[in-house]
Amino acid sequence: MYLLYKFITSLLEPLVYYHLKQRVKYGKEEKSRLTERFGIANQSRPQGFLLWCHAASVGEAQSLLSFINRVISENKEIQILVTSGTVTSAKMLKDKLPKQCIHQYYPADVPRWVNRFLNHWRPDLIVWMESELWPNMILAAEKREISKILLNARMSMSSFKKWGYAKSLVQRMLQSFQIVFAQTKMDEQKFIRLGAYNTRKIENLK
With 0-12 CB in 10 A as exposed, 13-18 as middle and 19+ as buried, what is 83? Predict the structure, then answer.
């Protein structure tokens, strides 16, 4: 199933490009930073170990901030790449991220753009927040043997049912994470039923 998804998303690259360009007109993308959505970085990769943290939108970004601040309190020299997918989350993070963090927009899940992003940033560890699962990115990171953690993970019943129709794909993604930290016991059970093999229930970071 993944090969089919990868093939289709490759074919759809021109349409995704056009769609993102159209979103600029409605303020849903930043024109000056639109190339980041195509995996083109606007900054250099810092030297040394790089932790990459991803939060889809404002709610996840707020949870991520508490995690980042705790990490930095333990290691003030660490360099962190932070990605998000919305204009509002980017604006919020711009004001609150510590100085050793770099913010970029998350690239759309098109194979060529995903590889461009990973070729540039070469993260050593990835932390995804909540329920942001993009097959091309997750499995490209797995191919590069980059360790991944799904943190504060949640799964709505509607998402659980939808992923059930693509169980082989979601199982492959979830099993590529070294560990899944779920928000609730119910969330943990959903992830286990979808194929996650190493899960823990933790307190909601929010």
Answer: buried
Nearest of 166, 161, 159, 151 to residue 199 by alpha carbon: 151
Chain segment 150-199, per-residue pLDDT in tens: 999 988 899 888 888 888 999 999 999 999 999 999 999 999 999 998 99
Phi/psi region, residue 122 (left: phi>0; alpha: psi -120 to 50; beta: rest), is: left
Exposed/middle/buried for residue 33 (C-beta within 10 Å: 0-12, 13-18, 19+): middle
DSSP 8-class letter at 184: S
pLDDT 10s digits, 68-118: 999 999 988 899 999 999 999 999 998 899 989 999 999 999 999 999 999
0.90 exceeded by pTM: yes
Query: What is the rounded (10 degree) CA torsion for 24, 27, 31, 33?
Result: -120
Q: Are 69 and 98 in contact (CB under 8 A)?
A: yes
Concerning whether 13 is annotated as a catalytic residue, the answer is no
Residue 121 exposure: Cα atoms within 13 Å on the Cβ side: 34
> Which of 36, 60, 130, 188 is an active site residue?
60
Between the CA of residue 13 and those of 9, 114, 203, what are the distances in Å? 6, 12, 39
